[in-house]
């Protein structure tokens, strides 16, 4: 696995994705313990997970377009929440 620095975002932009990241992780943890037996809560969780996932992907799409980050077909970006740096992670 190779990590290459391809850009940086503002603290405000970092806060936006960090909130979504933490929310998505929390919802994923909840999904592990919540069963479909609790229909109303389960449906709310599924809807929230979908909406959060979409917002998460939209943030990456928006930032990639704004900053024109280098990309790779076999790679993905990740953010360092401490430095606001964006890394391109590839398997080569």
SSE layout:
Layout: E1 2-8, H1 11-33, H2 39-67, E2 76-80, E3 85-90
Antiparallel strand pairs: 1-3, 2-3
Please indicate the count of domains.
Answer: 1
Overall, the morphology is elongated
- The SS-based structural class is alpha+beta
Number of helices: 2
Q: What series of H and E elements makes up the topology?
A: EHHEE
Largest sheet: 3 strands, antiparallel
How are the strands ordered across the major sheet?
1-3-2
Helix content: 55-70%
Overall pLDDT level? 95
- For the termini, the CA-CA separation is 6 Å
Would you kindly provide a written description of the structure presented here, covering whatever features stand out?
Helices cover 57% and strands 20% of the residues. By secondary structure, it is α+β, with helices and mostly antiparallel strands. The protein has one domain. Strands 1-3-2 form a three-stranded antiparallel sheet, with no helix packed on it. The protein is elongated, with a radius of gyration of 16 Å.
Summarize, please.
With 92 residues, this protein is an alpha+beta fold. Helices cover 57% and strands 20% of the residues. It has one domain (2-90).
Give me some keywords for this one:
alpha+beta; three-stranded antiparallel beta sheet; 20% strand; 92 residues; 2 helices
